[in-house]
Amino acid sequence: MSSHLPTHRPAAGAPAVPWNRQRLRSNNEWLLLELLRTGGGSSRAQLARDTGLSKPTVSAALAALEQAGLVREAGRLAPERGRTAVLYEVDPAAGHVLGVDIGRARLRVAVADLAGTVVARRDVANRGRSANAVADAVVAAAHEAIAEAGLAADDIVHAVIGTPGVWDEQRRGVRYATSLPGWGRPGLFDRIGEGLGVAVTVANDANLAALGEYTLGAGRGSRMFAYLLVGTGLGVGVVKDGELLLGAHGALGEIGLVPLPARAGEPPATIEQEAAADAVVGGAPHTAGGGGGPRHTQRED
What is the spatial distance between Cα 65 and Cα 168, in angstroms, rounded to a whole number? Predict the structure, then answer.
């Protein structure tokens, strides 16, 4: 069952075709690679049973994956009866990917191998005073993480950026990223892609968190679940049968923008203004010195 992120035209300066599709010649190869990546080592016979493909088709696809450097032999299984079976697994070093989480207070970057193991990460304060400065800080942190992993820039085959808001392909920018002033300006993610020199996929941070929980966390095996992200902003990611539900315009999870009934004598407010981190802290009584009321906080997204 595949999940998954919306695909977008690569950022300027990135490869025209995503790396995995360049190196995989058929859907059968892609299917087997995903099974090995998510399920661990397996034999040809087991892969044939899991996929419904014939054994000759599986053998041909595995041979192509080996030749491309994506799959390797992982040992042999000697059953009590029958032939010894060769086990195959994904070669973790065949490629590395970059994950970026953009928040108002923090920028987080991680480098992972093809097996999903994180090999380096950076967590830095977001001190950018303009959208361009934030974009450049993302690129700088990414290059530091790549160097920390002992890799070169061209060892990164794809990057995924999690950001508040909704990606707009026509504008080449995000909408509704109210917590990051100027972040909706078109061209910022192309600027990041040029700085990284790699294909970039942009997705909503709550949606990415939901996929993470479905793949490795509390949502694993769930037919349908929702992930609530509370930070500077407020958002929801919904996964059904392994697929993100995005809505007609990609804004299904933007619950923070939903208006609340107006109170007498007060301006209209949204759920985010009432229930996100700043609102909760600002409305809580001060523990030192007494008295409630608004208080500024820098919540780490």
Answer: 35
